[in-house]
Amino acid sequence: MLKSDFYYDLPEELIAQTPVEPRNFSRLLKMNRETGELEHRHFYNLCDYLRKGDLLVVNDSRVLPARLYGVKEGTGAAMEFLLLEQKGDKLWEILVRPGKKAKPGSRFVFGDGVLKAEILETVEGGNRIARFECEENFFTALEKVGQMPLPPYITEKLEDKERYQTVYSNELGSAAAPTAGLHFTSEMLDDIRAMGVNIAYVTLHVGLGTFRPVKEDNILDHKMHSEHYYMPRETAELINRTKAEGGRVIAVGTTSCRTLESVGTFYDKIEECEGYTDIFIYPGYEFKVIDGLITNFHLPESTLIMLVSAFAGYDNTMNAYKTAVEEKYRFFSFGDSMAML
Questions:
Q1: Burial (CB count within 10 angstroms: exposed 0-12, middle 13-18, buried 19+), residue 312
Q2: Is residue 189 located within the same domain as residue 242?
Q3: Rounded to whole angstroms, how far apart are CA atoms 291 and 255?
Q4: Nearest to 169 by CA among 298, 299, 23, 302
Q5: Is there a domain that residue 198 lies in?
Q6: Overall pTM > 0.85
Q7: Strands (DSSP E) along the chain, which ranges?
Q8: Same domain, 134 and 50
Q9: Which residues, including other chains, have CB under 8 Å from residue 209's CB and lie 6 or more apart?
Q10: Domain containing residue 291: CATH number
Q11: How do the pLDDT tens digits run along the chain, 341 residues long?
Q12: Domains in the chain: how many in total?
């Protein structure tokens, strides 16, 4: 299959720059996965499509304010850090700009000294390993001086950091939000539980690789990024019980989907586990766990639209995206939602 098979034309004005208020007033494109039939609703109508005994699985990862702006000690040269992955106590793999100013041994200051850092080494791909210093808890310092690592297609300033977090975010570690969950309010989650629909949590820390474009023409030549996931015992038990009782397991977001399908692929049964996954889901993949998917609209030619095409069918998916463009849905991280049930 070719990368170009997943291209669609998107007018720039349909890329959402700010989130909708309140959260669940975003639009919802509901697809019947079997027939491809589409309905135009709002996210607060999601309950109309859920049934008692269903299980929503959400990703409770919380986004780090991972973008740091500082200066180089001695010269005062401006520098930007982006935290990618924690490697130890105050030890992080980072992306740096400009890279030529971040040689091993160089030191940097952020927020008038709230955070300091020293570059230890350069690793594969040009990233650096940095050791940070601060007088308080590292994450407390990061909250003070860090900024949300919004995707490059969002150019407007985010006034409220919490709008790039889900209301159930809990486990710090992502470099980007699991955006399918941004539409839920706490009140809506209470209404869903009151219907007899269970909500369970997995953790997958979203890396910047989620924005990495597919460069190879043949998608099978694409190398997927790896991300850390955790499947709690309580969630595994709820999935097994839901399946046994005939309910549907509905993944909220491609990150939840990748976690569930990774566990279903790596293990003979759904059980508590953690590790790293670089699972690549594209048309032809046989789903082992999920029965439904709620997600946002993804970039053309991305691995995420390939995943959606694998679940909903290629023709159904490309028709849904064509329709969404025609109906002027809002796209990407702060955009509207799509449910395949």
A1: buried
A2: yes
A3: 15
A4: 23
A5: yes
A6: yes
A7: 27-31, 38-42, 55-59, 61-63, 67-72, 78-88, 91-97, 107-110, 115-122, 128-133, 171-174, 198-204, 227-231, 249-252, 273-277, 292-296, 337-340
A8: no
A9: 224, 225, 226, 227
A10: 3.40.1780.10
A11: 999 999 999 999 999 999 999 999 999 999 999 999 999 999 999 999 999 999 999 999 999 999 999 999 999 999 999 998 889 999 999 999 999 899 999 999 999 999 999 999 999 889 999 999 999 999 999 999 999 999 989 999 898 999 999 999 999 999 899 999 999 999 999 999 999 999 999 999 998 777 778 999 999 999 998 999 999 999 999 999 999 999 999 999 999 999 999 999 999 899 999 999 999 999 999 999 999 999 999 999 999 999 999 999 999 999 999 999 999 999 999 999 999 99
A12: 2
Contacts of 280 (CB under 8 A, 6+ apart): 222, 224, 303, 306
Domain end point (choices 98, 114, 145):
145
The single residue listed with the structure tokens 């030549």 is 221
Amino acid at 251: A
Q: Which residues contact 76 (CB under 8 A, 6 or more apart)?
A: none
Range of the domain at 135: 67-145
H or E element that contains 312: helix 303-312
> Position 20: which residue type?
V
* 189 and 324 assigned to the same domain: yes
Q: Which of 64, 253, 62, 85 has the alpha carbon at shortest distance from 149? A: 64
95/126 Cα distance (integer angstroms):
8
Question: In sequence order, what DSSP letters do the residues of 239-283 get, joined into one string?
Answer: HHHHHHTT--EEEESHHHHHHHHHHHHHSSS--SEEEEE-----T
Please check whether residue 316 lies inside any domain of the structure.
Answer: yes
Rounded-to-integer distance, Cα 280 and Cα 300, Å: 16
Please report, in angstroms and rounded to a whole number, the separation of the first and last CA atoms in the chain.
25
* Residue 224 and residue 117 in one domain: no
